[in-house]
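Hi everyone, sorry if this is the wrong subforum. Our group has a chain we'd like a structural model of before ordering constructs, and none of us has done structure prediction before. Sequence below.
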Amino acid sequence: MLKPKASATRELISIDGLWRFAVDTASTPEPWSSTLDTPLEAAVPASYNDLFTDSAIRDHVGWVWYQRSVRVPRGWSGERVIVRVDAATHEGAVYVNDSRVAHHVGGYLPFEADITELVAAGEEFRLTIGVNNELTFETIPPGIIEVDASGAKKQSYFHDFYNYAGLARSVWLWSRPLVHIDDVTVTTQRDGSTGVVDVASTLIGGDADVRLTLRDASGAVVGSGEGPAAVIRVSDAVLWQPGAAYLYDLTIEAVVDGAVVDEYTLAVGIRTVEVSGAQILINGEPFYFTGFGKHEDSAVRGKGHDNAYLVHDFQLMDWIGANSFRTSHYPYAEEVMDFADRHGIVVIDETPAVGLNLGIIGGITGGPTPKTWSPETLNDTTREAHAQVIRELVARDKNHPSVVMWSVTNEPASNEEGAREYFEPLVTLTRELDPSRPVTFVNVMMAVAGTDLIADLFDVICLNRYYGWYVMPGDLVAAEAALETELRAWEQLYGKPMIMTEYGADTIAGLHSIHDQPWTEEYQVKMLEMFHRVHDRIPAMVGEQVWNFADFQTSSGFFRVDGNKKGVFTRDRKPKAAAHALRARWTAIGSAKPVAD
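Answer:
Right subforum, don't worry. Here is the predicted structure as tokens:
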């Protein structure tokens, strides 16, 4: 699905702002059928949970409703009129006046509706969007809903971040011609110093010729092609590289009787990604990942996209010397991906398949542990929802040069019977959709080498490990020995590239001790340094991404007090001591594999 863009043949209007807002009630069976009777207004984009003082809204389980009036520009007569929702967490329904025009399941990916037949140029219409935050065993991510004695719904889930909901990303009204470019897929290769740009495009609405023009950063034409499938060769191509992004502009035109009826311009980075032995190569050179697992999370906004936070977070990553991040644990806003493209930040792009591990229930509570993979829990329907998420993620992000790897899931129960039957078709699907990138998953600490059942299916092994925190807390000597023993077992068993995608310790900013005291700033630094010593001794380790970039909100309870505190920055982006320690290491090594002293 192409991101909406204005061009000579398309117009784009943001309909962000303040919308009427109401929680679903039985007294209003069809809230889209008239003006919402509510005094509340909610910001879009933003999660709704922290906007209001009423805890019943924050803790609401089920549908909520957003509504506003929208005027179609008078110049759009004869154009197709589209409503696009960048995300509705976790299920969305769109109504134009009294008609439902779109329904989508999945909280972090876009969907749209052609509303041309229901609206008129120059006139207003009532736009209502319903958002449902419910999670079940058949959703991605999964969860459980229970109903208490009063009839109220209670939601529980298995991921360790708050279940923010609502319209956390932008909503758009845009126009496109009747005959238009519907999709474009670009893959790139190198032939010596020549860049090879392979373009496949599809049209909708009628027959047209396709014309392709590739321009460099100065606007000079460096290549062209014709037809829906074409190859453009660029002499002396400037490569997109980590830390040194270079983007070409590819303009795709649909031409009828010599006239351009539609055009769309896509940024293209020429680069290659491959796995060779125990290395990951970008443009044929070994690459060492430094950076973070992150979250879309900030006070008041929740998961609401904010361009000010986008700029500041990337500035902090540049300051600390990070060259990469993982979109833990869901696809991030497209603005984030575009920014990474422009600034040379490498991305591991992850689906929202987090919490596929019911063993964590027993591990945290000490209670019984249900089977993760069964007809009653995560089943064939769950897997199809997971497959659909993969299809939509690849369709959205396939053209981003910053994306070098797909992560199919985070911390599944990969040591339980049934895991292989669940994941093997999904890995096959991912490779069929995009053969140009490696595929990985993120292994949980309970599924160590030899007990994990799926690692051989993937190109790269990503590990989340907490030696010195959840395991052997406070004993960094024992933790270091255990970590090295396990990593060497993975290396010997598979010989594949390995990335430590999570490691860290909860830390209260301002808490200090001269001893190895968990929760202090000093302990966080020492624990990270212990991991780094081990990483440098393991040849197959090709990266380290600390958990987490910044503190973030989680569900309430005894296990988390005001959220997860593993950030090297506080939730309002103030550095802890660990940030300065990481800056010293990462600015010194760049993208090169460190060597143990």
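For your construct planning: The mean pLDDT is 95. The first strand starts at residue 11 and ends at 14.
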